[in-house]
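Model it.
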Amino acid sequence: MVLLSFDIEEFDMPLEYNGEISFEDQLSISRKGLQNILSLLKKHKAKATFFSTVVFAENNKDLIQELLEEGHELASHTWFHSKFEIEDLIKSRERLAELFDTEVTGLRMPRMMKVNEKEVEKAGYSYNSSVNPTFLPGRYNNLKVPRTYFNEGSVLQIQASVSPGFRIPLFWLSFHNFPMGLYKKLAKDVLKKDQYINVYFHPWEFADIKDEKFKLPGFTTKNTGKAMVDRFDEFLTYLNKTNYNFGTFQEFQKSIR
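Modeled.
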């Protein structure tokens, strides 16, 4: 199964690099990107899971309703993207469910930050997708984490996909910076080995973020905007030629029980 997921959030990344961006622009850039994503998914008849902050969802109710009507899944990305308190786990899940009358069972932490799994379980989640089981200097050293899904208490851990062997991550930065031929080869290797793939992106990647005032490094803006739309269109075309179906995380969870 192909698990496509998107962390829909305020585009606050410029603040990590001492850049300037207003809250209104954070929302408008992510909104534009989400519109592009939904168009691509509809074109390729691909299902996906959207991990949303409450802040983004409350300011884009029409788009959240649209993605639910298209058969996609809504999950929690907590309340804010730049700030987290443990109470946000249950508060965000309940608020998203209340706003859109949908069952919210999944969690992804902002920036894949670590979280107490007992608190995740207490907050009522049945799965968590907040780990990149690889080594990325400065942020993630998760080489001791299993490469594929496993249960921790009653919560299913669904890690982001990494390649067999060297654990090369197939996350959004790889998609931007690797040649498409290499990325497709790695995706094919993961599907063959694991029978599923879990890759994640953000809506702002599908929008214009090459503004000098954002002060973003080149490796984060390479192949964004129109280039990202075109690359993702190509990737979905490739995936549709495989023998694997697109599914939501809830559907994947049911399929492995």
